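Training component of the fellowship. As part of building independent skills, the fellow (R.M.) carried out the full modelling exercise for a liganded target. The chosen ligand was adenosine-5'-diphosphate-glucose. The inputs are recorded below so that the supervisory panel can assess the work.
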Amino acid sequence: MSRLIIISNRVSRPTKGGEQGGLAVALAAALRQSRGIWVGWSGETTEKFTGQIAFNEDQGVKTATIDLEEQDVDEYYNGYANKTLWPLFHFRIDIAEYARDFEGGYNRVNQRFADTASPLIEPDDIVWIHDYHMIPLGQMLRKKGLKNRIGFFLHIPWPPTRLLVSLPHHSKLVETLFAYDVVGFHTEEWLESFRHYVEKEMGGTVNGDFVTVGQRTIQAIACPIGIDTPEFVAASKGEVAAEMQERVRDSLQDRAMIVGVDRLDYSKGLEERFTGYARFLKDNPEMHGTLVLVQIAPPSRGDVESYQEIRATLDSLAGRINGEYSDVDWTPIRYVNQGYPREKLAGIYRAARIGLVTPLRDGMNLVAKEYVAAQDPQDPGVLILSRFAGAANQLKDALLINPYSPEEMSDAIGKALRMPLEERKRRWVGMMKSVEEQDVSWWRTTFSMRLEEADKIKQTEEAE
Ligand code: ADQ
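Fellow's submitted model of the complex:
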């Protein structure tokens, strides 16, 4: 078995309290099996970049991390990754910032990763690079002479060509993807947009999974990520989840609960969610006092201005809706700015009659899948899901809505509250099938197998 080297912006070390997400758990399992290494930024800054690597090993998972300079973090992480690529790839060219310093910092840090990681990589290793922070890294590793199998997975959407061309030097960035052997996206839609760009902007050709530009042919595939379903199902039946479920239900006093769980991010459609919920309250006065929206949204990326803005907007929107509709014994929105361990989260999902997941654009969205996995099969809740989340392609039995329409959201909330048990069960069975079949282990093995096959294809080509 080849050793796996994972490179991503941040590494996730195994913890004892079950706080890790499914992705971290799945990748940690693969690293353990192959005795591989996870390489990334430590999250710390240093005055002068030295390239010094801190090695660690926790529960059989080896990590190698480097510190970055403050300027690196400003230009690469807060800058190009989160002020340029994140909004642009989520179709928000209105807030994307294009600055030469950001692009320079992004390339500099990727080069730093290439310089640091390349001595750790042996000829037979498989290298798997993750996400928009690291798009050009594969090409930089190739320039250092690496002939390994190298794969790249994009966790966020790939934007339509007419939006992507608003990025200065867009083709230079996309060209770097042709250094990989396999490039993965969550959905056919993101894959199609990538192919469209390659054909229209680069004169490339597409032949099934193979995409060619000039002399380079890569495999571009759709491979939807899943959650660690067995672990999440077990968590939802555990003691911690049961206690949390009871705590929440006690506090609700027979009211129906709607739950939203998101990082505080403008792509998650939180403002639209509150507005849609307010529309339901306006349209259905007889329902006042019978339901509560519990929105759990821990702040993220607080150094970026647009994230401070969304926080302020939501604070005031929640306050306004609560001010307008609350009664002495009822508050329609409980807005909680903190994270919860996974077991507790599972209990919160299970207590909720409705899971409200309304991103304006999302590569996949794992919260939707976690909500499904946490339900009681005998009395499952209803998932209301944005059609613009990657997950909507698999969770077709959810109530799919357009999150930009408060009326659609309001109607879906009404429909979910009235939905008979038989229909809830039927829809849940359909969704759970996909959540079980295409879980995170399936995702990891499917992608890794493609990468291994890629090598066979290359070897055959070389032999001919
Ligand atoms: P994210 O944008 O972070 O991920 P998502 O897929 O929903 O979005 O994953 C969020 C994770 O964080 C979930 O596992 C959720 O349980 C957890 N989480 C969120 N709020 C929490 C809270 N308050 N307490 C505890 N845990 C919380 C990016 C892309 C997605 C893609 C994933 C994986 O933006 O589209 O699905 O990567 O590829």
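The panel noted the following from the submitted structure. Residues 21, 23, 155-156, 225, 261-263, 296, 298, 339-340, 345, 362-367, 370 surround adenosine-5'-diphosphate-glucose (CB under 6 Å). The radius of gyration is 23 Å.
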